[in-house]
Hints:
Blueprint: E1 11-14, E2 17-23, E3 34-40, E4 55-62, E5 65-69, E6 72-76, E7 81-84, E8 90-94, E9 100-107, H1 112-118
Antiparallel strand pairs: 1-2, 2-3, 3-9, 4-7, 4-9, 5-6, 5-8
Amino acid sequence: xxxxxxxxxxxxxxxxxxxxxxxxxxxxxxxxxxxxxxxxxxxxxxxxxxxxxxxxxxxxxxxxxxxxxxxxxxxxxxxxxxxxxxxxxxxxxxxxxxxxxxxxxxxxxxxxxxxxxxxxxxxxx
Length: 125
């Protein structure tokens, strides 16, 4: 059984949001999936970006956000799944006074080069 807690995996900070990489290619034999847990402070915003070769889903766990996907935007909240097609420009902004928390899954997974570039091991406490 493979498990990883938030404080055990690599992290990436962007726009006031912290992404915790929980699973990527090579972890426990995974070949086709990356999974991140993301926490964003009030008013934080992820830069618009796209994954040319991967599709992605966001599942909102806590808070309210404004999701942009391929020129469309919609308010999202807990229990909402957002599908992001390959190559679609997308981002999310926290609209709430509490943390925005979401899980994102990407397939195929981020490339090893992108993971190494973006994600740093957590600092020891």
